[in-house]
Amino acid sequence: MRNSLVTKRHRRFAAIAATAALTAAVFVLPAKAETAPKEIIKTYSDIALAVFEDSLTTAKSLNTAIDALIANPSAQSLEAAREAWKAARIPYQQSEVFRFGNAIVDDWEGRVNAWPLDEGLIDYVDSSYGSESDENSLYTANVIANTEIEIDGQKVDVSKITPELLSQTLQEAGDIEANVATGYHAIEFLLWGQDLNGTGPGAGNRPYTDYDTANCTGGNCDRRADYLKSASTLLVNDLQEMVDNWKDGGAARKNLEDGDVQQGISTVFTGMGSLSYGELAGERMKLGLLLHDPEEEHDCFSDNTYISHLYDAVGIRNVYRGSYKRIDGTEVSGPSVSDLVKESDPAVDAELGGKLDATVAKMEAIEKRAMDGEAYDQQIGEGNAEGNATVQAAIDALVDQTRSIERAVTALKLDSIAFEGSDSLDSPDKVFQ
After folding, report:
1. Which end of the chain is less crowded, N or C, counting CB atoms within 10 A of the terminal residue's CB?
2. 27-31, 150-154, 168-172: range with lowest mean pLDDT
3. How far apart are CA 122 and CA 69, in angstroms?
4. CA 87 → CA 54, 61, 84, 330, distances in Å?
5. Distance of alpha carbon 64 from alpha carbon 86, whole angstroms
6. Minimal CA–CA distance to 363: which of 284, 424, 421, 418?
7. What's the CA gap between 46 and 238, in Å, rounded?
8. How far apart are CA 315 and CA 388, in angstroms?
9. Predicted model pTM
10. Per-residue pLDDT reduced to its tens digit, 174-214
């Protein structure tokens, strides 16, 4: 991403607002409750496992497509790799609701989905990107073009590009979060290149010849292929690790199964509310709309943001209802927090269920505009009243559903839960300071 209109907010999630602490909750089951909290936790864990398994499956397909691109660079093989990347985003985005409240997931997430990134660390960039940053000495280090770089005043050999170099040396090098060397967005940049269109039509347009060693554009085509393959390999390995964490006996599942059931139910709502409000409505959507800035677009190189936002919303609904549709068409389902809320206060359950559907519908309206030719970065562009209104309607729906999530928490007397906040929503004037 190029320099933003304001100082970049380097974050893996909503770092502008302090992370809300989950404190002890007073949990009271509804009278004659039929839904056992432990069964809800099992469903939640089963859905997490299925979502991460699907993310792993699609990442492996992406890895295969990247192998084909490297072996035989062409417009067709590049497009196939891009389509595989887009397909991989659909299940992964439905996993993000498991981040907040599950430290194992949140601590791991930066390796696979960190953004925004200073892409000049990785590869060549347009002159409009600039040549230096007061915040990041590696702003234009261009690892692909160089065999040695300097990190914290020390010369570092980067002559051999490997998964270990990316994960152990380059990722957040110099303790700077913008130095994103791994994950979906590093791969996205290597497949699309920079989107230089601002809020005009068009995504990144990297040529396939950037990987063609016989007719190389951009220079260092062999090293670019090594970087892309290393990042893809890491993505598969990282997702396998998270799948293992949610299998029977895995650390993430055991933390919930062996822990206090009160906190287990609280974890479900913490993920829903924090993703809904601070992360998605605030940092991923409202901030970009306030600034009319494509640099705040989540999938900024590919113009795939409308899909990522939609499936974040779908993921929130999944865990509330205890149901997930897998990429093979089968369904994972079971007792849910919706069942528990319904037993305590049927009106609140109906209200929240309806608002979750309404939010998905507002996200689908953004998707429709994108499918009709107006990308997300165009929709948030200054002067696009209809596009701005469509995005704002989705933000409003997310905020509205969060209020109903809070009412569900109150109905279950889980009133010590606090959700992630966002200056973009809570103190928008600070965004321009």
Report:
1. C
2. 27-31
3. 19
4. 10, 9, 5, 17
5. 14
6. 284
7. 19
8. 24
9. 0.93
10. 999 999 999 999 999 999 999 999 889 999 999 999 999 99
Q: 105: which 2 tokens?
A: 């997931």
**CB neighbour list of residue 354: distance below 8 Å, 6 or more residues apart:** none
Contact 85, 187 (CB under 8 A): yes
pLDDT tens digits for range 79-126: 999 999 999 999 999 999 999 999 999 999 999 999 999 999 999 999
> In angstroms, rounded to a whole number, what is the distance separating the alpha carbons of residues 100 and 103?
7
Do the strands 148-151 and 323-325 form a parallel or antiparallel pair, or are they unpaired?
unpaired
Q: What is the pLDDT of residues 339-389, one digit of tens each?
A: 999 999 999 999 999 999 999 999 999 999 999 999 999 999 999 999 999
CA distance 279 to 284: 6
Q: Which long-range contacts (CB under 8 A, 24 or more apart) does 127-130 make?
A: 128/2, 128/196, 129/2, 129/3, 129/194, 130/2, 130/3
